[in-house]
Amino acid sequence: MYIELSSKVKCCEVFYEALNAPALCVKPQSVLALFGSGFTTGISVGLGHDLTEINPVYAGGSISYANMLTNIAGNEITNFIKNSFRRRGIRLGKQLDDVLQDIKRNYVYVTENCAVKKQDYKKSFKLPDGKTIDVSDESFMAGEMYFQPELVLGKKLTSDVIPVQEAIVTSILKCDSELQPEMYDAIVTYGGMATMPGLNKRLARELEAIINRPVNVIPTSEAYAVAWLGGAVFAGMAGAKRLWVTKKQFEDQGERIVKNRF
User: Fold this and answer.
1) Which of 68, 2, 22 is nearest to 12 (CA)?
2) How many domains does the chain have?
3) Structural domain of residue 135, as residue ranges?
4) Which helix (H) or strand (E) holds 105?
């Protein structure tokens, strides 16, 4: 995600003045997610609540001109399930938000092959009042929205919505031609929705069908925290300190050094 200069300056002010940090470095989540997965070049696929971002990274630097958004994210998944319940006449009142989050985190999944029989993906959910409801369609279709938004959204589909696999290929094609093969060798998914079972296998399958070559989608059990792990990796890298801005430097140069260094 692009961070405005004013936000970076405010971040520095908080760390130096309120937290008394001796030095600070601001790096994009996309870069840190790759570092946390053991790579410095590749594609970061951030599957968050508000955004699904595709960010190419080369040698530890973000290629910002090739970034892509799919306009399908966790918030759209929540709204899909909520609207599905409404159509079915399921009313949960104040408990609705908790139920939606539970289903999204623990029931939504992605099949490696979407051509499955309905009886193969039956899922039931126990409501707080003890009643059990069928959430098979919600669990299956919500994950499918990332790969086949036209199937799920139908007439509600807008022109700015892009399947995640197509957004990744488009992002890589925006990069210099000599860099493109390396990008497919490290595709890192991270963020809350990256924990969906089956996501990485399906993503690899869809990408290979488009480009007709093997790809390497990196699975991680720490999808929520991989960017934080990357921050720890970066802090220990040789030469990282030359990118830090010390409190004294910030006091002397202010916004100028933040702009130049970050």
Assistant:
1) 22
2) 2
3) 74-156
4) helix 96-106
Digit-coded pLDDT (tens) for 141-164:
999 999 999 988 887 888 889 999
Residues 99, 222, single domain; the answer is: no
What is the three-class DSSP state of 185? coil
DSSP β-ladder status, 187-190 and 217-218:
parallel
Q: What is the largest CA-CA distance in the chain?
A: 67
3-state class of 246 per DSSP?
strand
Q: Is 203 left (phi over 0), alpha (psi -120 to 50) or beta?
A: alpha
What the block records as the tokens of 192 is: 């809350």
Task: Give CA angle at 89 (156, 199), nearest 5°.
Answer: 50
Span 160-204, pLDDT tens digits: 899 999 999 999 999 999 999 999 999 999 999 999 999 999 999
Q: Which neighbouring-strand residues pair with 42?
A: 57
Residue 1 lies in a domain: no
User: Domain of 205: which CATH number?
Assistant: 3.30.420.40
Residues 6+ apart with CB under 8 A from 47: 73, 74, 146, 164, 189, 190, 191, 192, 193, 194, 199
Say whether pTM exceeds 0.85.
Answer: yes
Residues 116, 43 within the same domain: no
Residue 165 φ/ψ, nearest 5 degrees: -65, -35
Q: Is residue 258 part of a domain?
A: no
The CA distances from residue 201 to 192, 209, 243, in Å, are 17, 12, 36
Q: Examine residue 253 and state whether it is found in any structural domain, yes or no.
A: no
Mutual angle of helices 29-36 and 226-235, in 10-degree steps: 80
Which of 219, 233, 156 has the alpha carbon at shortest distance from 190? 219
